[in-house]
Design brief:
- With about 120 residues, the chain is mainly α.
- Helices cover about 50% and strands about 10% of the residues.
- It has a single domain (about 10-110), classed as Rossmann fold (3-Layer(aba) Sandwich).
- It has a three-stranded parallel beta sheet, with helices on both faces.
- α2 crosses α5 (about 80-95).
Amino acid sequence: MKILGFTDRIDELMAVADVVVSKPGGLTTSEVLAVGAVMAIVNPIPGQESRNSDFLLENGAAIKINNLSTLPYKLSALLRDPGRLARLKENARNLGRPDAAMEIARKALEWPKPAAGGG
């Protein structure tokens, strides 16, 4: 484990991570699922982050750290259990949509073009 400050290489780091410790914001959640990593959820804010947290937990793609003092214990326990870690990562991969942007672009290109001169 290595703790980093600000970096502009987050995509590279997530690609090699087994577990990402983070708040479950929309973009972060999408990125973590796209690479098939497990999220260790900390301090979700009410609203979207709480709903993202619930979704990840209900689908077995995350663990929740309710108190930061338990973070070392919970991460160590997860990393010492390769079977559980593999199941959580598989669930994350199944939820992830790494090609979502390309799928949306393909669908947009398939839409019928409006008639010339039409409104």
